[in-house]
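Hey,
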Amino acid sequence: MTDRPVQSSSIVATPPRRAPTHPIQIGIAPMLILVVVAAVISAGLVYAARIPEIQEELSLLLGTPITADRSRRGPQILFILFTVTSPLLLAAALSLGTMLWGKLTNR
């Protein structure tokens, strides 16, 4: 009997390939869209702070005396309509703007 070394099939485990890590990049157009959306939301919040019913809720939350007049409902209804329709109007305006921009730049 000969002493031959037993050859075993060695499987070399290769480490999993990792995707290259790059910092997150954002273009000018998405950044401007985010700024416009943030400006519209902040304008809505500033307007909401002027509605008497919301001032009353904030006064109750903070424990200050209530000074809101309960007779006016117009601003409250207008704010609710603004809140419901503003995302749709903003999306339509941005879509129209990007369409016009594309048509103007690709003459």
